[in-house]
Amino acid sequence: MRLGREAAAFAVLLLALAAPARADRASVVASAYSGLSLSAPSASFMTVCHGFGCQYRVELGLTSADHATMRRLMAAGSGSAAKERAAVAAVGAWFDKRVAPLAGTKGHVARANRDYMFDKGQFDCIDTSRNITSLLLVLDELGLFKYHRVAEPEARGHIIDFTAPHATAVLVEKDSGVKWSVDAWTRAYGQAPEVMPLERWRQLD
After folding, report:
1. What are the residue ranges spanned by the domains of the chain?
2. Which end of the chain is more exposed for a tag (fewer CB within 10 A), N or C?
3. Of residues 52 and 7, which shows the higher confidence score?
4. Residue (of 107, 129, 138, 157) closest to 52 by Cα position
């Protein structure tokens, strides 16, 4: 059942919030994918989630041309942490367009709610937080981060008290330790993910 899958994924995320902060790739992989039985991404392959709660999945092979595009876009961020985050957002917009022909998501809307949950051409935040985390891990494997590392996805809200639950991919700035949300769920097709301090993201509805 789709709602059950989505609720279970949120439960895994909310439990992760209570755990001590960890930084290594293995812990990110365990947090992001184990609850959904997904394989970890690599520089040549990832599983893309769509249709709410990762109900639908498509295999994306990453080519040398894809790597070249990611390197070119990330090169614009070489001057500072802020520029690197802007470059990540640009890669996110490219990635959305790259995935759409395979997943059938060219018409996806921003902030897709439960009205869309039977539409496999849409993303909920479980889909986008996993997909963007996969993208960030690929960028990391390609050695394209100078100022950031990838952290576990995080969540806000609680199913049991009916506040809206929401999940996001996360980067951590190496020098300051500040966490940054990289949230594609709030954006429509082809738009760059929203990047903001995680503490600010936590305060949003």
Report:
1. 2-202
2. C
3. 52
4. 129
